[in-house]
TrEMBL record:
Transmembrane segments: 14-36
Catalytic residues in the record: 162, 266
SUPFAM superfamilies: (Trans)glycosidases
GH26 domain location: 50-337
This protein's name: GH26 domain-containing protein
Entry keywords, A to Z: Glycosidase, Hydrolase, Membrane, Transmembrane, Transmembrane helix
Record-stated family: Belongs to the glycosyl hydrolase 26 family.
InterPro entries xref list: GH, GH26_dom, Glyco_hydro_26
Amino acid sequence: MLKDSNKLHRRRSITLWTLCVLVMLMQLSMFGYVGYKKYRVVEKEDWTIQTTMPGYTLAKSEPASGIYLGGYVLQNPAIAFSMKTFNERTGRQHASFFKYVGYGKEFPTKWVEQVKSTGAVPHIAFEPNNGLAEVKDDEYLQKFADEANKAGVPIFMRFASEMNGTWTNYSGDPEQYKQTWKMVHRIFSERAPNIIMVWAVLSLPEETIESYYPGDDYVDWVGVNVYSVKYHNDSRLHEADFEDPLDLLNFVYNRFSREKPIMVSEYGATHYTVTDDLTDNAFAAEKIKRFYGELPDKYPRIKAVFYFDVNNTTEYNEKRRINDYSITTEQEVLAAYSSAISRPEYLTEVEPVQTQGAEAEQRFTYRGLIYKEAGTLYADKRFFTDVLGLKLQAEGSSEKLVSGKAAVEVKASHKRIWAGYNYFNYIPRYRSVDALPIVETLEPLGYRIEVNGTDIIVEPGA
């Protein structure tokens, strides 16, 4: 009995110590979280830095200002897959329409002529769905390029897009991808100079995006696909209705817009999802109004946007039968789209490819990685280096920025800021920010700073 009593006592002691350790760990975790929130995480607000600079070299068919209106209608039987009807329903001529073409299929000459007949230019999503190994410098690819050249109009060529995810057969090997891209770019450049090579990703995941970038010399435009949905992964646990579609642009826009025009190669907002089996036209209208309404002001380096007018719930791919993005059958959603695209910044004709090389003044913006703390505005270092072109040097615990003969030393701030969306199961996604104070950094270098609401105007001095 005594032996059994000792065993029971030891078990109770172990259980008690285990509970104590768990409580201590929970307390430490809570203390760490509170400290983390207090000292490392900053509030996200709708800040936009704007600056205007001369001497930017335009890319192929890039407009000096404005945004080409584009659309996709080839999976919408409600309008008989008609570009003309889409223009009529939305009340605006669209400058470009796109079509998916699987690698190995013939160049879509008949469709290209149909696009031209509406006064638009073609945009081809050229997809090697059997993997990159099938893409070779051979008769097929050369003929495809030759047929494209015969079209006689600019052609946006979105080759092997959304490679940053895991759902395509050409993802997973960034080095092979870049090598293949460069080969395709060379063939199109030689045989079809009217082709505009568009390197396009899905807005998420961000972590893999840069590893697939072939380099500035091999890309004409950079594209990003963005969707506004109420849930991710067809799960009510993964609510997404709070997401601002503009936030989903920020990573690609901030990284690439200084050197390349940006294309929203696909955008759609759902008004019905099978996840909750509810129609919510107000949701789609609100997202469209926010997205199209703010692009010209907050994202002036976006030069084209394509609406994805498709009811995916009836499509052949069962995995995608979740959301209805079509706008032409829902009056409230259609009205929101028509109103938003009525702004004069939305363009109905595409410039010729000969615009490449011309110089133009451009307005650049920076979004997402900006915050205010203790009355001081901060921006990520990459704004100062990538957008303004300042040279950054480490000086002990400070940062030294150089502009011509002028220099300034400031102390960096290391924070984290919410990206505007969550990971799975409500876990917020934070971006690390190595930031510098905007006014204290730029005014000594001769810049003029003006804060107007959430707009921060940065202009070089005389």
